Amino acid sequence: MRFTFWGVRGSIPAPGKSTVKYGGNTSCIEIFIKDRNQVVIFDAGTGIRELGNSLMTRYKPGTLSCNIFLTHTHWDHVQGFPFFTPAFIGGNSFNVYGPVTSSINDGNQKPYLSLKDLFIEQMRYQYFPVKLDEMKAESKFTEIKEGHYEIDGLKIQTKTLNHPVLCMGYRLSVNGIDDLVYCTDSEPYVNYFMNNSSEMPDDLFDPLFYQTLKSKLSDPIGIEKLSLAMQENLNLVNFCRGARALIYDSQYKKNEYPTKINWGHSRIDDAVSIACRAEVETLFLFHHDPTRSDSQIEEMIDYARELAASRFGNKTINIVAAEEGQSFEL
Length: 330
Ligand SMILES: [Zn+2]
Ligand SMILES: [Zn+2]
Known about the structure:
Elements: E1 2-7, E2 28-33, E3 38-42, H1 47-58, E4 65-69, H2 75-78, E5 93-98, H3 115-122, E6 138-143, E7 147-151, E8 154-161, E9 167-173, E10 180-183, H4 207-215, H5 220-240, E11 245-249, H6 268-277, E12 282-286, H7 294-312, E13 318-321, E14 327-329
Parallel strand pairs: 3-4, 4-5, 5-6, 10-11, 11-12, 12-13
Antiparallel strand pairs: 1-2, 1-14, 2-3, 7-8, 8-9, 9-10
Helix pairs in contact: 6-7
One zinc ion is lined by residues 10-11, 74, 76-77, 185, 287.
């Protein structure tokens, strides 16, 4: 498979002179499986607009059919869809998969809005001049949960990530040896237990950190919840284990995190820690903060490489920053 970054930025598009190299569009990745002529898309941030233009040149009108997997429905992961030209072409078809947050107030756990309703809502006339049902391609919307799926010959595993809305990480494999893991909008599962975010240690898995948090809790239910949270962090490592490519949320530097706690994102340190523990081949730093300039991203790559070698003794892992327009073969 070949994957291409069409959008690598987090939160909001960030065009301008300082982001020319790594790009300003929000999350969108294309996976192309050549021998099947199959296109898979991760997220529909603003990067999907240029991907759509590319697909228009590669596929005759009415011949494109593909699966779009959404991590979640925050703006930076869906707002490109109304500008995705192939969706306006009759005969094309799209299966859109994504998680939907359930209501916590009703016992039936019914979604507030279905996945399709969320897309209809985004294109309401107050926000956008064209309605979803005016897009001529056939679109089907399917809600997914954590689990294993087999879709059009793709092996897909999903993992719930810690984010302010239900958010899924994806592990995709075509032939069993080309695993690509995409985990963005993911905060370590310990934010609820820290009174002060500066308590976060350099290494998320530092046993002393867990012991310190535990010593501050008095009730057994709290201790049980802390233990489950730490287990979820380990589950995430296992989810990423041995991947050829891990595309991971690296929005913040260590010193920025204290003011961004509960916003649902990771520090570079957490991305490196998970990637090294999971023994992945290449870590792609992803979901760059909109304020991050190209030169600052380069500093982050150096920092991450140094961290992998010095803290984890890992000198073989490749660490790069996701860059708009770049493609990689697996
Ligand atoms: Zn995001
Ligand atoms: Zn988000």
